[in-house]
Amino acid sequence: MNIGNEAQFQIYQMRLTGQYRGETLCISVEDWVARAREVLSEEAFWYLAGASGRGETMRANEEAFAKWRIVPRVFRDVSDRDMSTELFGERLPYPVLLAPIGVQSILHADGEVAAARGAAKLGLPYVVSSASTAPLETIADEAPGAELWFQLYWSKDREVAQSFVRRAESAGCKALVVTLDTPMMAWRERDLERAYLPFLLGEGLGNYLSDPAFRAKLRRPPEEDLAGAILLWTQIFGHPGLTWDDFDWLRQTTDLPLLLKGILHPDDAEEAFRRGADGVIVSNHGGRQVDGAVASLDALVAVRERVGPDKVVLMDGGIRRGSDIVKAIALGANAVLVGRLYAYGLAVDGEHGVETVLRYLLADLDLTMALSGHRSLVTLDASVLARA
Ligand SMILES: Cc1cc2nc3c(=O)[nH]c(=O)nc-3n(C[C@H](O)[C@H](O)[C@H](O)COP(=O)(O)O)c2cc1C
Fold this sequence. Notes:
alpha/beta, two-stranded antiparallel sheet, globular
């Protein structure tokens, strides 16, 4: 059975089997947010739900989808749907990845391991953040079967950056995502209000504390002197001095597919491919960096137009429902990354929450495609949409 029909059937069946007891089930993103708010501390909730500045870009990301409407087609056989897509020689069952989100230990005790396991249940790639609390190797060991990518925060210290790349290769990561929009953190009002930066409390440092190049720079190991390790982290995190020439160096050091994340300008996308990037991720970090930045979906249109049909262009920002994915694919994305949505699922119910929230997203995608007259991603192009 297609995932959409199956998920609907399972939910409605709960009433017949007595599993449903009159509560409102977590179905919509609004339901998941409300539950997450109940279970998380204020500071953890706002670290996740907050943005930079007045939150204009975070809102714009979602609003950009409402500027487009799907124009459904009829009399097309949509009995069997196939939402698979190919990325870097691998076939993915759905055009969806889990975006890198740091410090998942503040959301759930099992943090990144739970999220990667939830992703694996659906065959979705999980992008491990440099700022994960569990080290990459622990996630790889404890979530066997998960397809992992690694997201690199490029340290000021080149040896640490290089060591992270080597570790991603050894752990079997399928691609490397280099995030370029966070050479420093933006003015995040919600976190500043609570003087809350989890890294300073020792969360989200798993990859650093376990890294041989990082440890070699410490006078005493982090197990004996965590404060010293946190201090070193504050000194090397982020690299505002990076330029395209540094990218040339990185390109030479690895054969992994390299994607640049945080691309919004068509000129930067063009330069990325000219310099040998394998893909770009159109993203404004979910509105957590430049408040007032262009919405991801709007930037996607301009980037795709510039780089042509053959380059790998992914996008994230504001994906909350199946129709958002249909629109992003129709406007030129090869696949999308989901950020906060799965993190709310993680907060509410760990691995099971991640699996459930993503299953419902894919179910919604499947049903939206079918009801719009599409049984594969191939027929999704701009002709499917009208301006609202
Ligand atoms: C709490 C939080 C932590 C994040 N941490 C990272 C990170 O470590 N590395 C990174 O590249 N992006 C990070 N991001 C950005 C996401 O990868 C992604 O770009 C964004 O969440 C997409 O927008 P959405 O939340 O609307 O789906 C983070 C986002 C959130 C909400």
